[in-house]
Predict the 3D structure of the following.
Amino acid sequence: MQKRTVVALAVILAAGPTFAQENSSSVTSTGDNNSVTVVQIGAFNTSNVTQNGNDNESFAGQDGAENTSDQYQRGDANTASIQQTGDLNLSVQDQEGLNNNATATQSGSGNEVAQTQIGEGNTSATSQIGNGNYGEQSQNGFIHLAVSSVEGSNNRSLQAQYGEDNRGFVTHVGNGNYSEQVQDVYFNTTDSYLEGNQNVSIQWQLGFGNYSTTEAYGSGNYSVQNQYGDINEAHVVQTGNGNLSWQHLEGANNYAVALQTGNSNTAYQLTLGESNASEIDQFGDGNRAEQLQGIVNIGGGYSYDFYTADNYAGIEQDGFGNRAFQTQTGPGGHYALTIQNGNGNTATTTQTGDIHFSTITQTGNGNTAVVTQSNGASTPAP
């Protein structure tokens, strides 16, 4: 195969003759039909491009001062694009394989992004508007899509995908927000939207066809969603300040949704089994809700009990300082619903065995309810 180092276009412009030669561009292209374009406007900008393969394309545009862009491509038909406007921005793109595409756009000062792709047909796109933002996108496998859009300052976004055909989306509007997304195996989708300041979203998915979304509006909200298995679905919406949501789904075809409106509310939902549904709605401040299906809480520690199926658990809280706890284990078919309207109410529901039904409704202040139902011992699933 013929190898050649060709096709480089560098344009260096400056405001005056003092800076005319102070930008730096380095291009190394080995292979056939590769294309490189570098456009630098300003002073002390640095661009490095290395290509090894065929039919690769690279573009680097810099407008400002002391920006750095590094692009590395190994393989065929890969595309890399960096556009930097402002000062002291850093972009690094590293691609290996076939038909991968990476795009990074930075506007502001002191932003950093690193994009790494290994495999075929992967796409990563990052947009940073503001100052001091940091982003990572790492994809290994086939036909992944990672998109990150950040507007504000000091935000941090991390995305990692392995396997095939996973989708990850991040949007930050505000300052000091943090998103972390990790997905492995096939056809998983996760989406994080944070609007406000210092919100945190962590979403991990391992398996096939899982789907999770996080929305936060306000400040200091914290959400964690872990899904292990296949075709599980988890959603959380937080409006207010200082809310905490943790949803751990394990098994297949499970569903969980948490809606928090107010301040300092806490919601936990853990599921082990198949075709279980969990819903928590919280309105007000300082409410706490916990639902466990197939998992038990013993002295604050969580452990597996039974692999259960076809259960429903729902908690609705409207007021201040309400507490609701629901545990359902066994083969399944349970139904538990707790509704609290008022302040300082406490409800506990425990159902073990098969096909129990419980509804608790509390209206007022300081009420207490305990429901325990069992129809004998069941054999734990292996």
User: Anything to note?
Assistant: Confidence is low (pLDDT under 50) at residues 1-19, 377-382.
